[in-house]
Amino acid sequence: MKVVAAYLLAVLGGNEKPSSSDINTILKSVGASGDEETINQLISELEGKSVFDVLAQGKSQLAASSAGSSAGSSAAGDAPAADSSAAPAKEEKKQESSSSESDAGGFGDLFG
């Protein structure tokens, strides 16, 4: 994910087509390194595409998958619980993930 973050930083900085060297420079500036194979794969997959269009498409797919999972959890909530002590633990765990998503600006664990 750090390679994706470095690519996005390069694009946001005005470099529409970051090279492997550009990505490595960004990674080294924060004391990280990237796998050349991963960097080259990312560059080739985004070749000829607008990173903003790719993000918009991913956001709509994420929204669709989130709607599907919430429908499944509400259906599970309608069924009687076999063990009432398990329900609060699930609720607690769900709240923890929500707070970590908000700390990351709504991206959850996308960059870390």
TrEMBL record:
<comment type="subunit">
    <text>P1 and P2 exist as dimers at the large ribosomal subunit.</text>
</comment>
<dbReference type="InterPro" id="IPR027534">
    <property type="entry name" value="Ribosomal_P1/P2"/>
</dbReference>
<feature type="region of interest" description="Disordered">
    <location>
        <begin position="65"/>
        <end position="112"/>
    </location>
</feature>
<feature type="compositionally biased region" description="Low complexity">
    <location>
        <begin position="65"/>
        <end position="88"/>
    </location>
</feature>
<keyword id="KW-0689">Ribosomal protein</keyword>
<dbReference type="InterPro" id="IPR044076">
    <property type="entry name" value="Ribosomal_P2"/>
</dbReference>
<dbReference type="Pfam" id="PF00428">
    <property type="entry name" value="Ribosomal_60s"/>
</dbReference>
<comment type="similarity">
    <text>Belongs to the eukaryotic ribosomal protein P1/P2 family.</text>
</comment>
<dbReference type="GO" id="GO:0003735">
    <property type="term" value="F:structural constituent of ribosome"/>
</dbReference>
<keyword id="KW-0687">Ribonucleoprotein</keyword>
<dbReference type="InterPro" id="IPR038716">
    <property type="entry name" value="P1/P2_N_sf"/>
</dbReference>
<protein>
    <submittedName>
        <fullName>Large subunit ribosomal protein LP2</fullName>
    </submittedName>
</protein>
<dbReference type="GO" id="GO:0022625">
    <property type="term" value="C:cytosolic large ribosomal subunit"/>
</dbReference>
<dbReference type="GO" id="GO:0002182">
    <property type="term" value="P:cytoplasmic translational elongation"/>
</dbReference>
